[in-house]
Amino acid sequence: MVLIAAPLVWFLVPGRRDRTEAAERLYATALDDVDGHRQRLAQWRGRYLVVNFWATWCAPCVAEMPELDRLQSQYAQRNIVIVGIGIDGPEQIRQFRDRLALRMPLLVGGFDALSLAREFGDNQGVLPYTVLLSADGAVLHQRTGALVAGEMRQWLDGLPPIGTGHSP
Description:
40% helix; Glutaredoxin; 7 strands
């Protein structure tokens, strides 16, 4: 009886299994970018992927976006991609991108993106919400609310290079 119960308890307790399913759903998703081009998130499978759920009307989201854009440029050669999934409409996100001259991928998720964030653990619907996925889709870090100064850099600096056999 104990041998059967232990696996069932693991199956029923939310945790890694649920987050892995959330990553699979994320990779199966295609969203428009702010220029109207359909982007499949699977294009970033096999890389470290930071997903930042945000909104143009969210002050902490707006405050951290320039830093996320800088980090995307600095860490791109290490197979790290930072993607923003906005819950606004395409016009608001496009105007925001243009005003701040952002180069990182910004996708239009609408309010449906909140359900995806919830699957990654954002049970309160707080924005911003940030998740770091390993190359195989495992959740390495997640953060509800604004990132603390230097926090993302610590996450990224601690990642082993992809392809070394040491990927988490």
